[in-house]
Amino acid sequence: MIFDRRLLKDFDKTLLAITFIICIGGLFILHSATQVKRLPFLESYVFRQISWIALSSVLLILIINVSYQKFIDISYLLYTINVALLVFVLIMGRERLGAQRWFALGDFAFQPSEFIKISFILVLASILGSKRADIEYVRGLILPLISLAVPFVLVLVQPDLGTALLLIPIFFVMMYVGGARVKHLIILILSGLAAMPFFWHFLRDYQKQRLLVFLNPNVDPLGAGYTIIQSKIAVGSGGITGKGWLAGTQNQLNFLPERHTDFIFSVIGEEWGLFGALILILLFFLIVRRSLDIACSTNDMYGKLVAVGIATLLTLQVVINIAMTIGFMPVVGIPLPLVSYGGSSMITSFIAIALLLNIGMRRSRF
């Protein structure tokens, strides 16, 4: 229930409807990707995903009832707590597949690096909104760069290369919208590119192997290249209309690893074909389009920055996830928002949508 009914006139029902349409479609895809495990329904991935959607929906209702300005006001606190969790997960977190990214809370694996995406957007919006007079000068870049560098390094050493790299384009887009000089941003970009050979030495062996496999999957067809080869086979075999729900051979015969998380788009491509994939892409495009509409329609710089940051985040996650499943980008472990299995990812996506709805509802008040 929205406490202030006057806000309902600017409530974006279409954005919310598209979000749930993607979630419902994702449940069908998740069922297809995991039904070979023959788990009882109450123990299945689908039931757990429904639980995350329900919990996320409750959070969405709570968030839209509190002005987004309140979240901007406590953004430093949220950011500090999130950074502390990133430190603690390196000390006492659960290790899985060579990465230490999760806290184990019963059956729930809590991943702080998912939530840093949102807290980083909020704190950067707070910095840029309050220091607009300084952002055109070099001194105005120091605090934003620190806010980027701290979580970037902590996430990178987990290691979670994909999430760490996500923060960089979000930073540059928000800096541009916030009024930073283009020449300063170009200098930062060129400096980053010049430092890439240096960062190569800090990558884990499996991360280096993934990058090499991206250039030539046949370098290690039964190891690091196996997943991407099987993913491309799955997507390509779907053709225009797909093989049908529950009828994908790569999926049902268990040739495709991680198909319920990072590679769930491969299941979509195989069983729903190009037609189904384009429908999903169109739905994501509509979400991003409405995000940008919200950003353009608000006069409040804080709200504009948050909306632009979220639009950038969602766009990057969708593009990178799809691109890595079809071999256009290296495998970096980015989930498909609202579709891939995972509580942290689902909650983070719903928080992002809730903030967009929040800004849109209050656009005329600022």
Return residue spans where pLDDT drops below 50 for at least 5 consecutive residues.
Answer: none
Number of domains: 1
Mind telling me the C-alpha Rg?
21 Å
How much beta, percentage-wise?
under 5%
Distance between the termini: 23 Å
Overall pLDDT level: 87
The number of helical elements comes to 14
The description of the largest β-sheet is: 3 strands, antiparallel
Net shape:
globular
State the strand order across the main sheet. Answer: 1-2-3
Class based on secondary structure composition and strand pairing: mainly alpha
Query: Into which percent range does the helicity of residues fall?
Result: 55-70%
Order of helices and strands: HHHHEEEHHHHHHHHHH
Total beta strands:
3
Specify the oligomeric state: single chain
Protein model, in words:
A hairpin with a 2-residue loop joins strand 2 and strand 3. The longest helix is centred in the C-terminal third of the chain and has 34 residues. The chain has one domain. With 366 residues, it is mostly helical. The model has no long low-confidence stretch (mean pLDDT 87).
Summarize this structure briefly.
The chain is mainly α and 366 residues long. It has helices at 13-34, 45-64, 68-73, 75-92, 112-130, 142-156, 161-178, 182-200, 205-215, 226-237, 249-252, 264-297, 301-325, 343-361; strands at residues 94-96, 99-105, 108-110. It has one domain (9-365).
Blueprint (SSEs and pairs):
Blueprint: H1 13-34, H2 45-64, H3 68-73, H4 75-92, E1 94-96, E2 99-105, E3 108-110, H5 112-130, H6 142-156, H7 161-178, H8 182-200, H9 205-215, H10 226-237, H11 249-252, H12 264-297, H13 301-325, H14 343-361
